[in-house]
Amino acid sequence: MWEQVIRAFQQAASANRASPLRTGNVVHLPDDAEAIIAGDLHGHGQNLLRIQALAGDLAANPRRHVVLQELIHQIPCQEGALPADGSHHVLARVVRWQLQHPGRIHVILGNHELAQMTGQDILKWGASICRSFTDAVARHYGDQAQDVLAAIYDYFGSLPLALQTAGGLAVVHSLPADRHMRDFDATVFARPIEPGDLRRSGAVYQLLWGRSFTRHAIDCVKKALGSGTLVLGHQPQPTGVCVVDYDALIIASDHAGGVVLKVGPGPAPSAQRLADQAIPLASIAP
Fold first, then answer.
1. What does the alpha-carbon distance between residue 232 and residue 110 come to, in Å, rounded to a whole number?
2. What pLDDT does 127 receive?
3. Full-prediction pTM beyond 0.70?
4. Contact 250/151 with Cβ under 8 angstroms?
5. How many CB atoms lie within 10 A of CB 26?
6. What average pLDDT does range 7-35 have in this prediction?
7. How many CB atoms lie within 10 A of CB 55?
8. CB 213 within 8 A of CB 201
9. Cα four-point dihedral sign 176, 195, 87, 108
10. How far apart are CA 244 and CA 235, in angstroms?
11. How far apart are CA 277 and CA 254, in angstroms?
12. Angle (deg, nearest 10), helices 129-141 and 145-157
């Protein structure tokens, strides 16, 4: 079993890096594409099933693409003990889905994947969710756990930073904090990622960990991507969606009130229009 899992992550990582839709660290969807866009998933297996149900038969719908982010680390909705982390199972399911439909399932890098693969830590109520993830992998894979983790981390390292539709809608996990905007190197979207980009002072870290979502940050990232509207994750959203400004919104897909977006070809809609048309995941039969 573990050999198949490792092989799947390796194949998916190679496909991510070699994607003909990818330029630098941005995936560009074809002109006629329609996209189903999710927010943070955090190991919510039932909501992944709902997203897959909404996507339907991808072979019969060749224009349809799916965009996912922040797949790992199960986090409870309220303060308390961390749940047993089964998010590595959800991650493996997504990778198998990618391999079944090459070039149609796109995962963008989130701060939780960055922390996990670089040995950083994220604490929730005094407990390490990064350690919870590695412990869960160790329990499941035993002596082969380190080899599986190495394949997972290589897969994380292959993920793009953003996805953009032909109409100018861009999906990116977060935006740099205002205090980092003067130093933020927006060329990271177009050039190879370097080790320094992953450190606290680096462009990838700044991009994925910021939480301010100010007008300045929105304008900077929009300019770097050439986009009209930004779809973001990273910040918890109890109601599933939050309009930040006319051209930026946050969505979440990691709880019972989570939502997804379904966007067709054509110019990017406004943030408010996207929010109004958000699809509650609870309304989809898995």
1. 10
2. 81
3. yes
4. no
5. 22
6. 98
7. 19
8. no
9. positive
10. 11
11. 18
12. 130
User: Rounded to the nearest 5°, which phi and psi values hold at 259?
Assistant: -135, 165
Q: What is the pLDDT of residues 179-214, one digit of tens each?
A: 888 889 999 999 999 999 999 999 999 999 998 899
* Secondary structure (H, E, C), the chain: CHHHHHHHHHHHHHHHHHCCCEECCEEECCCCCEEEEEEECCCCHHHHHHHHHHHCCHHHCCCEEEEEECCCCCCCCCCCCCCCCCHHHHHHHHHHHHHHCCCCEEEECCHHHHHHHHCCCCEECCEEHHHHHHHHHHHHHHHHHHHHHHHHHHHHHCCCCEEECCCCEEEECCCCCHHHCCCCCHHHHCCCCCHHHHCCCCHHHHHHHCCCCCHHHHHHHHHHHCCCEEEECCCCCCCCEEEEECCEEEEECCCCCCEEEEECCCCCCCHHHHHHCCEEHHHCCC
List the CATH code of the domain at 2-283: 3.60.21.10
Contact 196, 256 (CB under 8 A): no
Domain boundaries along the sequence of the chain: 2-283
**Confidence check: pLDDT of 80 > 80:** no
d(CA 46, CA 52): 10
